[in-house]
Amino acid sequence: MDAMATAFGMLIGFDPTLWSVIGLSLRVSLSAVLIATLIGAPLGAILATRRFVGRQALIVVSGAFMALPPVVVGLAVYLLLSRAGPLGSLGLLFTPSAMIVAQTLLILPIITALTRQAVAPVYRDYSGLFKAHDVAPMMALRITLWDARFGVATALLAGFGRAISEVGAVQIVGGNIAGVTRVMTTTIALETSKGNLELALALGMVLILLALLINLAIIGLGRIGQRFEEARL
Q: Which one, 72, 123, 149, 202, has the greatest CB density within 10 A?
């Protein structure tokens, strides 16, 4: 109970070490979500609305890679960014940039696959109308994405939830360096092993709160989307 009280006090007292870790975690994960969204959302929409060679393979890969082990992603990025790797000259290993790359690769399949699932039924409903009015492909894509925005937003939240709670990949490519690459999950693992339960508990509270907020947002978006669909019909 004393450790829990101390952890809560660190949160409300804005302990600098605690909040610097939280800030870095949010910066890394939100950056990864932004990059993955810019790539994955259009790709998922294209997979849902276009027919081309290799489309089915991309669908299978994006679905399969949703369960990609984080340590595998971390190892792949480590090999790319290490001194002997093809991108070693960039000097990104053991920096927040390397962690962003790893998290982006980890959540890109999630955002791509879930965006495709959200867009596909909307496009099926609109495809006849698009053909009848000879709507340009890019315009049809924009309209479909907009009407599927609640499902796409759910995909982004799912990606953020995976990124913020990830530990294996960022541990490998970030090195868990204090004040540089130490995020919430790696700090919890380290501080627990050291017996510093107060900091670990405080960070655990933040992660639980974020998980609750993400789930509430997903539920809320689902209900809003359902009401929007009912109103449209």
A: 202
In-domain check, residue 65: yes
Residue with more model confidence, 148 or 14: 148
Nearest CA to 181 among 68, 80, 102? 102
Domain count within the chain: 1
- Listed in sequence order, the residues at least 6 apart from 56 whose beta carbon sits closer than 8 Å to its beta carbon are none
Residue 195, amino acid: G
Say how far apart CA 74 and CA 76 lie, in whole Å.
Answer: 5
- Burial class of 230 by CB neighbour count within 10 A (0 to 12, 13 to 18, 19+): exposed
Q: What mean pLDDT, rounded, does the chain reach?
A: 88
Q: Give the domain CATH number at 181.
A: 1.10.3720.10
Asked if residue 39 is part of any domain, the answer here is yes
Q: Residue 13 is part of which domain span? A: 2-225
- Choose between 109 and 195: higher pLDDT: 109
Examine residue 20 and state whether it is found in any structural domain, yes or no.
Answer: yes
| CA atoms of 202 and 42, how far apart (whole Å) | 37
Taking the C-alpha atoms of residue 224 and residue 229, their distance in angstroms, rounded to an integer, is: 9
Residue 191 tokens read as 């501080």
Cβ(223)–Cβ(154) below 8 Å: no
